[in-house]
Structure formats: structure tokens, C-alpha cells
Amino acid sequence: MRYFLQRGGWFALTLWAAITLNFLLPRMMPGSPADAAIAKLSQNGPVTEETRRAVEAQLGVPDGSLIQQYVDYLRQILSLDFGVSYAFYPEPVSGLVAQALPYTLVLVGLVTIASFVIGTLLGVLAAWRRGTWMDALPTVGGSFLTTFPYFWTSLLLLFFLGYVAHLFPTFGAFSATTQPGLDWGTVVDAVYHAALPATTMLITSLGGWVLGMRNAMITTLGEDHVTFAEANGIPGRTVALKYAARNAILPNLTGFGMALGGVVGGSILVEQVFGYPGIGFLLFNAVTGQDYPLMQAIFLMITVSVLVANLLVDILYGILDPRTRR
């Protein structure tokens, strides 16, 4: 219990530090968030100080002392009120994030989980059957696939399967004539549009899980407790999964926690290539539009999700390997 309380304490401290940095960094940047809007107005003539103050008030630029701004910022986080988007004015930031988040969670989340499960099982199989074609095929294939960056693979699939073969749509999450809902036709259309982005992320991430699990598994297979289990006549499948894989999966589990925490951030390049309306696509538009409130909200969500994922991994470590509690 002491181990879990310590993990929870460190999580709370790190979360507070992340929230504070997310508050300070935009305010340490030169200029004001209203400068982009004022720059557009200045093209029609000089901007007076009254006009500048009116623009800042309209955009919700914070004023007052830094401590008062920090208190207001914490209050806004608790109420999930992140202000108004500059790039999509007058849309509230929370509404934009709420619209984009489900797309990323479904697409990136399911692909990350599927890639981890498939890659881990293939790594266990490759290590247990090392020296055979069952080892060579996933190992060589995984090494080959990990050399391809996300954006290059997505462009290849988009060109050949989208523009040349016309097998899959090339943009968006739904057809232009589809109204988003929970009916069967909408679900099929959404899966059809998500096929290429999901395939891209699955191809480029699968090899890392295979190679990581295989290497850790081979090291674990040489330990005494595995040899002792084999000498006692325990079936090979039980030895591979219960004795070897349970310990070998710990490094992969750490990587999975980091990947799962990054789900909220989405895959910016993949979503941008396919025009998929997830968090990554929204973040790209926020950066190009100098939308500070939207960027701040998305960065905070990404940071919190990574911290929560790391906390869950720490808890799983304590359950799977009691030695870590000491």
C-alpha cells in the first residue's frame, strides 16, 4: 500500500508542476495573443490603444497580476472553461476539443491497443520459436517496417489506395452526405474513412512492439526460474506465457503506457495528411493560426493523459512484479 500511495503522491506533484508550466510558458513568450488579430487590423491603418484594448477584451486576454491570473487559470481548469478560440472565433475551446477528441480516441486508441497486443504476441512467438521461420518473419518484417516514418507511409497509402486504385476515401471522417450518428450506416462510413489512417499507424508501430518483446523474452528465457519450470515438465505454452512473458512484458508495458498517454495528442502528421478531424488536426490548425487558448488546452490534455498513463503503468508494475514495491 505504501508503494501505491507514493506513486499517487508523485503523480499529484507532477500534475501540479505540469499545470503550472502550462500556465507560465505562454506568458513567457514575447508579444500578446492579440498581436495576430491586431496585425490584420493594422493593414487597414494604424491601430489605436483603445482598439487594442477592445480586441484583447473581446478575445479574453488575461489581465491583472500574475497570481490573480494563476488563480483564475486554476478555476478555469476545474470548470473546464479554456476560453474562446482565436482561430475559430467565437467557438469555445472546450467545444472544439469535445468535437475532435472522440475521433482521436477511437482511431489512435484502438490502433495503439491492437498494435501492442499483436506485436507483443508476435514477439513472444518469435522468441519461443527462435531460429525458425516464425522468428525470422516477424523479426525481419518488424525491422523493415520500423524504418518507415508515419507521414511517408501515409502518403504512399493515400496515393496508391486512394487516388490510383480509388479503394478508400482520401479526406475526412465521413462522406459529405452522411450525418454523424450512431446508426449502422454512419458507423460503416466512419470505419471506411478511418481505414487508411489506422493502417498507417498499425504498420509503422507494429515492428517496435515485436522487436522489443522478442529481445526481452529471449533474455528472460535464459533465467533460472524458466529453466526450472521446463525441467519440471510444465507445458511449453504455460512456460512461455506465465513464466517468461509475464516478466519480459514489463519493458514493453512501459512503452505502452507512454504510447497510450500520447493517444490524446493523436498523430498530427497522419491526421493532417488524411484531413482526419482529430486532436492532432486541431492542434495543427491551432499552431498555424496562433490560437494560444486552444494550444494551451490541448497541451494540458496531452500532459495529463501521459501522467495518468504512467500512473497506471506504475500500478501494473507493482501488481505484475512485486519486487518493484521494494
From TrEMBL:
PROSITE patterns per UniProt: ABC_TM1 (PS50928)
Listed InterPro entries: MetI-like, MetI-like_sf
Subcellular location: Cell membrane; Membrane
Keywords: Membrane, Transmembrane, Transmembrane helix, Transport
Gene3D superfamilies xrefs: MetI-like
GO BP annotation list: transmembrane transport
Ranges where the ABC transmembrane type-1 domain occurs: 101-313
CDD domains: TM_PBP2
TM ranges: 100-128, 149-171, 191-211, 253-274, 294-320
Coiled coil location: none
Membrane topology: Multi-pass membrane protein
GO CC terms: plasma membrane
Annotated family: Belongs to the binding-protein-dependent transport system permease family.
Protein name: Peptide ABC transporter permease
Species the sequence originates in: Brachybacterium phenoliresistens
